[in-house]
Target: Radical SAM protein
Amino acid sequence: MSSFRNQFRVAATSTELAQFRQQGWRCYEPVEPKSVEAFGQRWWLRPGLTFTPFANAVRCTAHCAFCSEELQRYDGHQLTAKRLIDDYPAYFTRLRETIWPFRGWPLGLSLSGLEATAEPQWLRELVACLTQLEHEGLIFDEKVLYTNGSGFVASPDLGLALQDFGLSRLELSRCHDDEAVNQQIMRFNRNQPIRHNAVYGHTVRWLHQYLAVKNSCILTQMGIATLPDVERYLTWATGLGVRQVVFRELSRLEGSYLPNVFTDWIEAQRVAIEPLLAAVVPTLESPRPGWQYTGSTFGYYYYNEHYRWQDTEVIFETSSYPALQAANSTGVLQKLILHSDGTLSGDWDPDSQVLSRATLVSA
Model:
């Protein structure tokens, strides 16, 4: 079965590229859903959907000003981050139960949530559990870890474990090349050495020996906001051996979330992606020197443009939470999330699109 996680196209003309930019994720063409019998009923799934065992064994090691776990939709109920995974045997038994009906179905594995590396023992046990499930017929055609990197400092063996697991790539979040500015945005706990550039650089160089490292930089007014900022960041990142970098616009909320200090910060700090794209390649005939357009990716709630800058792949991304919610409302499951209370749902809200519930109790 083919993976339809996203759709890649290369604009042939400047007019077509302008249309891509104007329409963004709206150019995504939904694929025919497939049905699966699970938990006593039939479910429709989007081919290419991802499975996320939400990382929440301990509190996050940072307190990013843009953290999505601090946002609540008007129609939302609760956030999974409020419930820690405090019973590992019960949790991993539950994980096996929830994912078992989907064996033989190609899934993307998205290791995200809070900070998966913050509790190394949980991550080691998770990888061991998923490896065993793969031996029993579970299929992950892509495996990605989204991380701030903090746990690798004290537990470098995690890199080896993830290499053995066959991790496709590690997306390492860093919002600025100046550690002081980065700290204002990501707000690491003071006892986290990764907040210092020297430690971060050492960690990245070490990880390169075992894993494909992709830097992820959130664009902000106080951080990386202009094309000269982008090029300076790229010079810094490539100096650490990074050869793939994504610059992400803060997800567009469009009034779909209850206002709080996080929504206020996001809107005040937003850097729209369109002016950056126009500065990099105003037209295909007149790109900025050193930049080459290589294509566009359309997802069901995001749009990416891909470039070569020197010998580095650079991606600019924009996304829409209302588009994500609109896709969820179609009745077709777009993702699978195992929440820390044992609920399997198709949404970041554990009370929305519930497939199965269970109380986590040790055997």
Observations:
- The two ends are 37 Å apart (CA to CA).
- The mean pLDDT is 92.
- The domain at 7-27+34-356 is CATH 3.80.30.10 (pyruvate-formate lyase- activating enzyme).
- DSSP finds eleven helices and 14 strands in the chain.
